Amino acid sequence: MEPSKFGDSYDMTKRQIMQWLAPDEQWSAHPMWYNQRREPEWGRPFTFLERYAAALNVHIVAGESQNRTQFREAAQGCRTHLLLDPDTGISDDADNEHVTYNEIRRIVQAQNRRASLTLVYDQGHQTVIDRPHLLARIGYKLERLHDANVHAVAYIAHSPNVTFIWASEDPQAVTQATRRMQRESHFPICRFVDDGCGHMG
User: Fold this and answer.
1) Which end of the chain has the least Cβ crowding within 10 Å, N or C?
2) Does an H or E element contain 20, and which?
3) By the 8 A CB rule, do 46 and 55 touch?
4) 145 backbone dihedrals φ, ψ, rounded to 5°
5) CA 186 to CA 172: how far, in whole Å?
6) In which band, very low, low, confident or very high, does the pLDDT at 41 lie, cut at 50, 70 and 90?
7) What's the pLDDT band for 84 if we cut at 50, 70, 90?
């Protein structure tokens, strides 16, 4: 999450989705803010992370750092539901704009996280031209996670390029959260994509 992008409609969506998935439960976030970490001029008197935490109603995960190599350790140590907020989304590229499949697997399967949700912001579909291609891309991502024993469901927030994916090692956690969101949001089922394990209602 680059500060220059903070405050757009997707930040409102992140907060609402977390509330639907796990109402009245604590969420933490790793904003995945790296590089030189210059504070934006508009931030004063608060820091960017203080504004980010307040806006999304989350705690910043303990151990959050501008050092990309410390990311996984901090995320794996989180004991609450967790939002991962990369600039772009899920990929095999281990760079500052993505979270990798292997990182998600290791975070989700951390000993203290096996029943918790991990929510990932993913806008890595910029080259998609229509809904069939989008569904194929999302399906591929969910299949990759499922092959790693991670259960997941995606919500298409803005077709064709922005989705949110929530995951857990516990299939019941994903099922309950998904059906709660469907029930509370009243959104059409075509906005949700399942990993094939029947998590949707």
Assistant:
1) C
2) helix 9-21
3) no
4) -65, -45
5) 21
6) confident
7) very high
Express each pLDDT in 5-32 by its tens digit. 898 899 999 999 999 999 999 999 999 9
- Starting at the edge strand found earlier in the chain, the sheet holding 59-60 runs 59-60, 27-30, 81-84, 118-122, 162-168, 151-158, 192-194
Give the tokens for residue 116.
């918790």
Q: Are strands 151-158 and 192-194 parallel, antiparallel or unpaired?
A: antiparallel
The answer, yes or no, to whether residue 42 has pLDDT greater than 90, is: no
> Full-prediction pTM beyond 0.70?
yes
- Parallel, antiparallel, or unpaired: how do β-strands 162-168 and 118-122 relate? antiparallel
Residue spans of alpha helices (H) in the chain: 9-21, 48-56, 71-76, 101-108, 131-147, 171-185
Sign of CA pseudo-dihedral 23, 26, 30, 36: positive
Bridge pairing between strands 27-30 and 81-84: parallel
Nearest residue to 32 (alpha-carbon basis) of 117, 119, 109, 114? 119
Query: 162-168 and 151-158: which strand pairing?
Result: antiparallel
- Among 59, 51, 45, which Cα is nearest to 3's? 51
pLDDT, mean over the chain: 93
Cα–Cα distance between 101 and 90 in angstroms, integer?
7
Choose among 102, 54, 190, 198: nearest CA to 31.
54
> Which residues, 6+ apart, have CB-to-CB distance to 165 below 8 Å?
90, 119, 120, 122, 141, 142, 145, 152, 153, 154, 155
What distance in Å separates the CA atoms of residue 19 and residue 82, rounded to the nearest whole number?
Answer: 12
